[in-house]
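> example.struct
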């Protein structure tokens, strides 16, 4: 049975949540310190499913009429350059996504005010145990296990809001062993970032350091132990805002499918 707690050996896991580099901030920037350290201090990862119509179609799913929400544990974070551990029997799929870092606590946030709750961004991959997810969906059961394995949320360093001119026009690219597999743009989202914030906050309170994964474009597919994955995030001018890379490895012990 899958153990939700992190292993004590950083060699075995390839990371701990607290292994991310700490940044120095002045005493007047406590809030910025919290949001920039969202991996260590954030309480939840709120993920959105099927937010790009072509991705919904490639998995034979209907295009949603309202955002589909699921949660991932913060213990699933792994820093860029780390390893994604694939449990035995699991068909693991990559899903590159723009992450939105929340800067302040809010509930029932109006659409007109939603942008003010964004502190910054991150480049992320929502790793998914696809064969397990399909089984769970067929049984009408939650996706938690398929999404929640340790190391199943590779994450870049924090991107300040000021460095992103237009979050609704960013290119997301993912390569496996050098070959482009996903090449999408946030302008193709079904639900905008402000709409996601508005909707999520009617269900659960958003807090400083929370991360919203905004969905993935089409092109999702498998990675197997030995594969190398590289991701980039660029703005409309071609300026690179973030990179993210990781290796897929076989998990030893723990959960087996």
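> example.seq
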């Amino acid at each position: 049975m899958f153990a939700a707690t992190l292993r004590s050996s950083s060699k075995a896991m390839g990371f701990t949540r607290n292994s991310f580099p700490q940044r120095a901030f002045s005493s007047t920037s406590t809030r910025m310190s919290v949001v920039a350290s969202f991996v260590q201090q954030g309480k939840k990862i709120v993920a959105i499913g099927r937010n790009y119509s072509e991705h919904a179609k490639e998995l034979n799913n209907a295009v949603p009429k309202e955002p589909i929400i699921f949660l991932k544990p913060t213990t699933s974070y792994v820093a860029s350059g780390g390893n994604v551990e694939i449990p035995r029997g699991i068909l693991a799929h990559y899903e590159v996504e723009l992450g939105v870092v929340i800067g302040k606590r809010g509930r029932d946030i109006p659409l007109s005010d939603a942008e003010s709750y964004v502190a910054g961004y991150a480049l992320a991959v929502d790793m998914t145990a696809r064969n397990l997810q399909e089984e769970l969906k067929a049984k009408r059961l939650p996706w938690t296990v398929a999404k929640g394995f340790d190391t199943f949320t590779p994450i870049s360093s924090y991107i300040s809001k000021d460095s992103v001119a237009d979050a609704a026009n960013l290119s997301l690219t993912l390569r496996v062993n050098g070959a482009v597999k996903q090449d999408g743009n946030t302008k193709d989202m079904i639900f905008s970032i402000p709409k996601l914030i508005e909707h999520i906050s009617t269900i659960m309170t958003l807090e400083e350091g929370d991360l919203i994964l905004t969905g993935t474009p089409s092109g999702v597919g498998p990675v197997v132990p030995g594969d190398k994955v590289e991701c980039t995030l660029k703005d409309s001018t071609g300026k690179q805002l973030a990179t993210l890379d990781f290796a897929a490895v076989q998990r030893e012990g723990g959960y087996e499918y």
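> remarks
The radius of gyration is 17 Å.
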